[in-house]
Design brief:
The complex is a heterotrimer of chains A (107), B (132) and C (164). Chain A is built from three helices and no strands. By secondary structure, chain A is mostly helical. Chain A has one domain. In chain A, helix 1 packs antiparallel against helix 2 and helix 2 runs antiparallel to helix 3. In chain A, 34% of the residues are buried. Chain B is mainly α and 132 residues long. Chain B has one domain. Helix content of chain B is 74%, strand content 0%. Chain C folds into two domains: 47 residues; 97 residues, no CATH class. Helix content of chain C is 60%, strand content 11%. Chain C contains five helices and three strands. The longest helix of chain C has 27 residues. The radius of gyration of chain C is 21 Å and the shape is elongated. Classes of the chains: A mainly alpha (107), B mainly alpha (132), C mainly alpha (164). Chains in contact: A-B, B-C. At the A-B interface, helix 1, helix 2 and helix 3 of A face helix 1, helix 2, helix 3 and helix 4 of B.
Chain lengths: 107, 132, 164
């Protein structure tokens, strides 16, 4: 029965990967990448049950953590074109809204 | 195996298979919905119902062990970060001016920075100005 | 101080659960990592001078979570029907929802609840309005969101914003 669940999750991962490949806009791809991470976490968990190795759950937990941070980092990069300190003023107030292109900067 | 055990097993299998069905439905929706703003909702089906049901079923299979504790930690983490990541993607799309049809009233006004901020930003953009 | 002690105990318990190895060296490394995490948390508190408040009651939050599960089940069913019906959804809409919670954590819970129920996504959080995008908008949606807003407001403790 766990093999059926593994197969279904694998199919779902393939479909989401197809959307990641085909997605016309950047945000489609980020969304598909995030969803792919969720699918992978559950897939690893089910695979651990299928093969009788519950140690896999540690890997799943780590994958969940990295997936969230990675999604936020990608979005931050595309909004500010930088990963590190993005505060525009020395006092550290974050820029209000809009990416750099909206504010008249050419890349 | 008495009646109670069979009952618990049946519940766990129903939860796991139902969760897989919801995950597949979410993937299919993400594939065949027409634009980004509808695909977000399709993915959120997999994020909420599929994840919760699969975690519940695996917890019942694990019994009262460390496996269940780890699964609960994974479930709580995904329960909190899933919607947060979805909101982050939607907010980034909106801020960059990518809105659905008929929602132009929510478009952000363009911000004009004063001269000092612009200078600071320009300095940040080229940290290696003046050579290494 | 109370929050720091609770966080230390929680992190230590988490480390003991996840580690599974109890040799002296590993143990010392675990203690060092717990105190490093606590140090970073306290330093972040000092940098931006913005303390987190937990102005919600435990039992009312548990009751709210149970209610939220029922809502998630209902809206999941609706979105699943939309996906499997084979038609492209054509009544999507963006609109504003009024927020009545005072504390930040209750507002976060409300926004995450909106996003967690499929069919509605919080897109932007302004001062006392959330911009929400709905997949199949009809007149019942607004009432459902107002209902959820009342439920979230009910979990706040009474003396919100009194002493931080």
């Amino acid at each position: 029965m766990f093999s059926l669940a593994t197969l279904a999750l694998f199919l779902g991962m393939c479909i989401v990967l197809a959307r990641l490949y085909a997605g016309p806009t950047l945000y489609d791809r980020v969304l598909a990448g995030n969803a792919f991470g969720t699918y992978t976490v559950l897939f690893i968990g089910v695979l651990g049950f299928l093969t009788g190795r519950p140690d896999f759950l540690d890997i799943a937990l780590l994958y969940a953590l990295i997936n969230f941070v990675g999604t936020i980092a990608v979005l931050k990069y595309f909004r500010y074109r930088a990963i590190g300190d993005t505060s525009p003023s020395p006092k550290g107030k974050p820029v209000l809204h809009g990416n750099l292109k909206d504010q008249g900067y050419k890349h | 195996m008495n009646f109670f055990q069979i009952f618990v097993e049946a519940i766990s299998w129903i939860a796991i298979l139902g969760g897989c069905a919801f995950m597949l439905v979410g993937a299919i929706g993400a594939l065949r919905f027409p634009d980004f703003w509808t695909r977000i909702h399709a993915v959120s089906v997999a994020d909420s119902a599929g994840m919760l049901l699969l975690t519940l079923g695996m917890c019942i299979q694990g019994g009262f062990t460390l496996v269940t504790v780890k699964l609960i930690i994974i479930g709580v983490f995904l329960f909190i970060t899933g919607p947060t990541a979805t909101h982050a993607v939607a907010n980034a799309a909106m801020v960059s001016g990518f809105l659905p049809k008929g929602a132009d009233e929510f478009r952000k006004p363009k911000i004009a920075h004063d001269a000092k901020t612009r200078k600071l930003k320009a300095k940040k953009k080229s940290p290696l100005k003046g050579g290494l | 101080m109370f929050q720091t002690i609770v966080a230390t105990l929680g992190l230590a318990a988490l480390w003991l659960l996840m580690s599974g190895l109890y040799k002296p060296l590993i143990f010392i490394l675990g203690i060092i990592s717990v105190f490093l995490a606590i140090f970073i948390i306290r330093r972040m508190d000092k940098v931006d001078d913005h303390k987190l408040g937990y102005d919600i009651g435990i039992f009312s939050t548990a009751k709210y979570l149970l209610w939220l599960m029922v809502e998630i089940a209902k809206s999941n069913w609706a979105v699943t029907k939309t996906i499997l019906s084979g038609k492209a959804p054509d009544s999507q809409k963006m609109f504003e929802v009024h927020v009545t919670q005072k504390s930040e954590i209750a507002q976060v819970i409300f926004a995450n609840s909106i996003t967690l129920t499929p069919g509605t996504v919080t897109v932007e959080s302004e001062d006392d309005n959330f911009v929400v995008h709905a997949l199949d908008f009809d007149d019942g949606d607004m009432g459902a969101l107002t209902d959820m807003d009342e439920h979230v407001t009910a979990i706040e403790t009474k003396n919100v914003g009194a002493v931080k």
